[in-house]
Amino acid sequence: FPSQTITGNFANVIHGLSANHLTDQVIQRSKRMILDTLGVGLLGTSTEVCHKVTQYSKIYSSDLSSTIWGHLDFRLPPLYAAFVNGVAVHSMDFDDTWHPATHPSGAVLPAVIALSEAFPQKKKISGLDLLLAFNVGIEVQGRLLHFSGEARNIPKRY
To answer: Where is the signal peptide (predicted)?
Structure first.
Protein backbone atom coordinates (compact mmCIF):
# COMPACT_ATOMS: atom_id res chain seq x y z
CA PHE A 1 0.00 0.00 0.00
CA PRO A 2 1.92 3.07 -1.18
CA SER A 3 -0.40 5.45 0.68
CA GLN A 4 0.12 3.68 4.00
CA THR A 5 2.15 5.59 6.56
CA ILE A 6 5.34 4.26 8.11
CA THR A 7 3.52 4.01 11.43
CA GLY A 8 0.64 2.08 9.86
CA ASN A 9 3.04 -0.32 8.15
CA PHE A 10 4.95 -0.79 11.40
CA ALA A 11 1.74 -1.52 13.30
CA ASN A 12 0.58 -4.01 10.66
CA VAL A 13 3.86 -5.92 10.77
CA ILE A 14 3.84 -6.12 14.56
CA HIS A 15 0.15 -7.02 14.72
CA GLY A 16 0.67 -9.76 12.15
CA LEU A 17 3.37 -11.61 14.09
CA SER A 18 2.42 -15.01 15.48
CA ALA A 19 4.10 -17.99 17.09
CA ASN A 20 4.44 -19.46 13.57
CA HIS A 21 7.06 -16.78 12.86
CA LEU A 22 9.32 -18.09 15.64
CA THR A 23 11.96 -20.28 14.03
CA ASP A 24 13.86 -22.87 16.06
CA GLN A 25 16.89 -20.59 16.01
CA VAL A 26 14.87 -17.61 17.29
CA ILE A 27 13.36 -19.74 20.06
CA GLN A 28 16.79 -21.00 21.18
CA ARG A 29 18.34 -17.53 21.13
CA SER A 30 15.34 -16.10 22.98
CA LYS A 31 15.63 -18.71 25.69
CA ARG A 32 19.31 -17.89 26.10
CA MET A 33 18.53 -14.15 26.29
CA ILE A 34 15.78 -14.77 28.85
CA LEU A 35 17.99 -17.00 31.01
CA ASP A 36 20.80 -14.44 30.91
CA THR A 37 18.42 -11.61 31.81
CA LEU A 38 16.90 -13.55 34.71
CA GLY A 39 20.38 -14.33 36.05
CA VAL A 40 21.55 -10.73 35.85
CA GLY A 41 18.22 -9.57 37.31
CA LEU A 42 18.45 -11.92 40.27
CA LEU A 43 21.98 -10.71 40.97
CA GLY A 44 20.76 -7.13 40.62
CA THR A 45 18.18 -7.58 43.38
CA SER A 46 21.04 -7.19 45.86
CA THR A 47 22.05 -3.73 44.64
CA GLU A 48 21.38 -0.53 46.56
CA VAL A 49 19.38 1.04 43.73
CA CYS A 50 17.14 -2.01 43.52
CA HIS A 51 16.52 -1.86 47.28
CA LYS A 52 15.57 1.82 46.95
CA VAL A 53 13.05 1.30 44.12
CA THR A 54 11.61 -1.71 45.93
CA GLN A 55 11.03 0.39 49.06
CA TYR A 56 9.57 3.23 46.99
CA SER A 57 7.20 0.88 45.16
CA LYS A 58 5.82 -0.68 48.35
CA ILE A 59 3.36 2.22 48.67
CA TYR A 60 1.41 0.94 45.67
CA SER A 61 -1.14 -1.82 45.84
CA SER A 62 -3.59 -3.45 43.47
CA ASP A 63 -5.85 -6.45 43.10
CA LEU A 64 -3.45 -7.61 40.39
CA SER A 65 0.04 -8.48 41.50
CA SER A 66 3.26 -9.76 40.01
CA THR A 67 6.43 -11.20 41.45
CA ILE A 68 9.42 -9.17 42.52
CA TRP A 69 12.39 -11.32 41.60
CA GLY A 70 14.23 -12.65 44.62
CA HIS A 71 11.34 -11.84 47.03
CA LEU A 72 8.93 -14.71 47.56
CA ASP A 73 6.94 -12.77 50.15
CA PHE A 74 6.48 -9.52 48.26
CA ARG A 75 4.42 -8.71 45.16
CA LEU A 76 3.50 -5.48 43.39
CA PRO A 77 1.08 -4.31 40.72
CA PRO A 78 2.41 -5.38 37.29
CA LEU A 79 3.61 -1.88 36.35
CA TYR A 80 5.73 -1.56 39.50
CA ALA A 81 6.91 -5.18 39.40
CA ALA A 82 8.17 -4.57 35.85
CA PHE A 83 9.83 -1.36 37.03
CA VAL A 84 11.59 -2.95 40.02
CA ASN A 85 12.67 -6.04 38.06
CA GLY A 86 13.86 -3.87 35.17
CA VAL A 87 15.96 -1.79 37.57
CA ALA A 88 17.41 -5.01 38.99
CA VAL A 89 18.44 -6.14 35.49
CA HIS A 90 19.97 -2.79 34.51
CA SER A 91 21.65 -2.15 37.87
CA MET A 92 24.39 -4.64 37.11
CA ASP A 93 24.98 -3.32 33.57
CA PHE A 94 25.75 -6.86 32.40
CA ASP A 95 22.48 -7.34 30.55
CA ASP A 96 22.58 -8.01 26.83
CA THR A 97 23.22 -5.26 24.33
CA TRP A 98 23.24 -4.69 20.59
CA HIS A 99 24.02 -1.97 18.08
CA PRO A 100 22.84 0.72 18.11
CA ALA A 101 23.44 0.73 21.82
CA THR A 102 20.48 -0.57 23.79
CA HIS A 103 19.74 -3.31 26.31
CA PRO A 104 16.79 -5.10 24.71
CA SER A 105 15.95 -7.88 27.16
CA GLY A 106 16.13 -5.78 30.31
CA ALA A 107 13.41 -3.49 29.02
CA VAL A 108 11.16 -6.21 27.60
CA LEU A 109 11.37 -9.30 29.83
CA PRO A 110 10.32 -7.71 33.16
CA ALA A 111 7.23 -6.22 31.49
CA VAL A 112 6.29 -9.46 29.71
CA ILE A 113 6.66 -11.55 32.87
CA ALA A 114 4.76 -9.05 35.04
CA LEU A 115 1.89 -8.91 32.55
CA SER A 116 1.80 -12.68 32.13
CA GLU A 117 1.41 -13.09 35.90
CA ALA A 118 -1.49 -10.65 35.92
CA PHE A 119 -3.66 -12.85 33.68
CA PRO A 120 -6.46 -14.69 35.49
CA GLN A 121 -5.64 -18.33 36.27
CA LYS A 122 -8.06 -19.59 33.62
CA LYS A 123 -6.41 -17.45 30.94
CA LYS A 124 -2.75 -18.11 31.69
CA ILE A 125 -0.50 -17.82 28.66
CA SER A 126 1.72 -20.60 27.37
CA GLY A 127 5.50 -20.57 27.21
CA LEU A 128 5.26 -20.12 23.45
CA ASP A 129 2.99 -17.08 23.96
CA LEU A 130 5.57 -15.65 26.36
CA LEU A 131 8.34 -16.20 23.81
CA LEU A 132 6.23 -14.51 21.13
CA ALA A 133 5.52 -11.50 23.38
CA PHE A 134 9.21 -11.27 24.26
CA ASN A 135 10.22 -11.33 20.59
CA VAL A 136 7.56 -8.81 19.60
CA GLY A 137 8.95 -6.48 22.29
CA ILE A 138 12.48 -6.95 20.99
CA GLU A 139 11.27 -6.38 17.42
CA VAL A 140 9.45 -3.18 18.37
CA GLN A 141 12.51 -1.89 20.20
CA GLY A 142 14.80 -2.72 17.27
CA ARG A 143 12.55 -1.09 14.70
CA LEU A 144 12.13 2.05 16.80
CA LEU A 145 15.90 2.30 17.16
CA HIS A 146 16.30 1.77 13.43
CA PHE A 147 13.90 4.67 12.77
CA SER A 148 15.59 6.95 15.31
CA GLY A 149 18.12 9.41 13.99
CA GLU A 150 19.47 9.81 17.52
CA ALA A 151 20.37 6.13 17.81
CA ARG A 152 22.49 6.14 14.66
CA ASN A 153 25.00 8.59 16.13
CA ILE A 154 25.47 7.09 19.61
CA PRO A 155 28.91 5.52 18.92
CA LYS A 156 30.20 8.75 17.34
CA ARG A 157 29.05 10.88 20.28
CA TYR A 158 30.93 8.80 22.85
So the answer is: none
Encode pLDDT of 138-149 as tens digits.
Answer: 988 888 877 776
Q: Which tens digits make up the pLDDT trace of 31-88?
A: 999 999 999 999 999 999 999 999 999 898 777 789 999 988 888 999 999 999 999 9
Q: What domain range is 63 assigned to?
A: 23-145
- Radius of gyration (Cα) for the chain, nearest Å? 17
- pTM metric for this prediction: 0.85
Q: What is the dihedral of CA 88, 145, 152, 25, to 10 degrees?
A: 80
With b for 16 or more beta-carbon neighbours within 10 A and e for fewer, the 11-29 pattern comes to: eeeeeeeeeeebeeeebee
